[in-house]
Amino acid sequence: MLMTSSDLWDEDTAARYDETSAEMFTPDLLDSTVDFLARLAGDGPALEFAIGTGRVAVPLAARGVHVSGIELSQPMVDQLRRKVSAAEVPVAVGDMATTTVAGEYFSLVYVVWNSIGNVRTQDEQVECFRNAARHLAPGGRFVIELWIPGIRRMPPGQSAVPFSISDRHVGFDTYDMVTQQGTSHHYRRLDDGSTRYGASNFRYIWPAECDLMARLAGLELEQRVADWHGAPFTSDSESHISVWRKPPTTPAS
């Protein structure tokens, strides 16, 4: 049996995933995401790590990009299949650190919405970069979307940072500053007035650590911006979109 540090999304979570992630489906966010990725893919195929229910893959495929995916959770793939067939968007079930998609090299590999943090050891995260590099054609690009941990907003002695506060949802992250482990906590008010609690675990990575992981995989930083619209990345940015490129030719050893 495959062993991974990632949480495994079950059938109930998968069935509710699109509904509870509705803010990630807004046209402004989704269109800018797809525009950015389609431009980098060009005429070549793309591979999404942690493809989930296809929030990004389905509209990217609709743009004419041949998209494949890797996904740990079979229930998430089952939800994706309600939208597109396996012929339209093929998916390999497995973890994104070691699972391979045979048969072609990709012009683009990408992982969005902080999902690289789902693998919760540094070694596995390094292997995600190496796995991306293995799948890339020379000159291809690896893209991640990742938030900047909000730990500088924590006063001494505090271990939690809120990221969502509304009448329907309260969410906060707790951090272990020693291990870089964290947990996202979600409290959602349902239509009947009851409350549902859910949590997911992650390991946060700083941009500089990402760059070192990329270097270990033989990738070179090409671009870093604050969002899918291309806003400049600054010390105040709360997220980053980073693009690393596989060299067009491999130097002789």
Automatic annotation (TrEMBL):
GO terms for biological process: methylation. InterPro entries: Methyltransf_25, SAM-dependent_MTases_sf. Keywords: Methyltransferase, Transferase. It holds the Pfam family Methyltransf_25. Residues 47-140 form the Methyltransferase domain. Coiled coil: none annotated. This is Methyltransferase.
